[in-house]
């Protein structure tokens, strides 16, 4: 059983971290079900374990939270759906790389329900969309913008932190950091792509895509 929780309004970041850690401990102890928690945060930046000081380009703009999840700097704020995943990775195969690929597949399957083609790129964390209407990259390939971020942590094989999908955030808020250490690509959202998508629409799509990617038959990693 996976419990789904949707919290309205804006959730304090440190309170969210504490709640996730407590829930992960309860799952590990066999006292609680796995959980997907859908939230929004007030505007803030988070620094993962690989964050570089020079990538925080406007440190006084929003609160900055050091966190022990993987990755570099990310932005969270209103209009961005954050999905915290507290799942038993041991039960799902003990393959962290496979688990991260499943998270990527979950995002891609969610975006596909809005006819958006999300893609992953070697050496670039997150999920990307091509922007053929923008000037091409220096090598002639189409411009690409990031639409979703992924960063997790494991404790006793229970995951926490998770994914974020840009639904309708203020994209200018991303300019205070180098998102995930990548400076030569932009950031986009579903609404920026011209789609009149609401947060409840995304929540429904996340739930449907999760069942396909992480269902009992699909949700096992059996090898790297």
Q: Roughly what is the average pLDDT, rounded to an integer? A: 92
- The Cα radius of gyration reads 17 Å
Distance between the termini: 25 Å
Any idea what the shape is?
A: globular
Major sheet size, sense and barrel closure: 8 strands, mixed
**Low-pLDDT regions:** none
**Count of strand segments:** 11
Structural class per helix/strand content?
A: alpha/beta
The residue fraction in helices comes out at 10-25%
SSE order, one letter for each helix or strand:
EHEEEEEHEEEEEH
H/I helix tally: 3
Beta-strand residue percentage = 25-35%
List keywords for this structure.
single chain; 224 residues; alpha/beta; eight-stranded mixed sheet; three-stranded mixed sheet; 3 helices; 31% strand; globular
Structural notes for this entry:
The model has no long low-confidence stretch (mean pLDDT 92). The strands form two sheets. Strands 1, 2, 6, 7, 8, 9, 10 and 11 form an eight-stranded mixed beta sheet that branches. A three-stranded mixed beta sheet has the order 4-3-5, with no helix packed on it. It is of the alpha/beta class. The protein is 22% helix and 31% strand.
């Amino acid at each position: 059983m996976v419990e789904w929780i949707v919290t309205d309004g804006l959730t304090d970041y440190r309170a969210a971290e504490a709640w996730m850690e407590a829930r992960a401990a309860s799952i590990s102890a066999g006292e609680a079900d796995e959980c997907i928690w859908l939230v929004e945060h007030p505007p803030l930046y988070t620094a993962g374990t690989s964050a570089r000081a020079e990538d925080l380009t406007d440190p006084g703009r929003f609160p900055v939270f050091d966190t022990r999840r993987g990755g570099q700097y990310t932005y969270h704020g209103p209009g961005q759906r954050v999905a915290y995943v507290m799942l038993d990775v041991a039960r799902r195969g003990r393959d962290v790389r496979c688990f991260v690929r499943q998270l990527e597949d979950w995002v891609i399957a969610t975006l596909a329900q809005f006819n958006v083609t999300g893609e992953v790129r070697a050496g670039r964390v997150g999920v990307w969309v091509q922007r053929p209407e923008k000037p091409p990259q220096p090598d002639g390939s189409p411009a690409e913008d990031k639409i979703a971020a992924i960063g997790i942590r494991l404790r006793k094989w229970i995951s926490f932190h998770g994914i974020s999908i840009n639904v309708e955030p203020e994209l200018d808020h991303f300019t205070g950091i180098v998102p995930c250490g990548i400076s030569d690509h932009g950031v986009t959202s579903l609404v920026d792509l011209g789609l009149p998508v609401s947060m409840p629409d995304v929540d429904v799509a996340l739930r449907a895509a999760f069942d396909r990617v992480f269902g009992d038959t699909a949700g096992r990693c059996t090898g790297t």
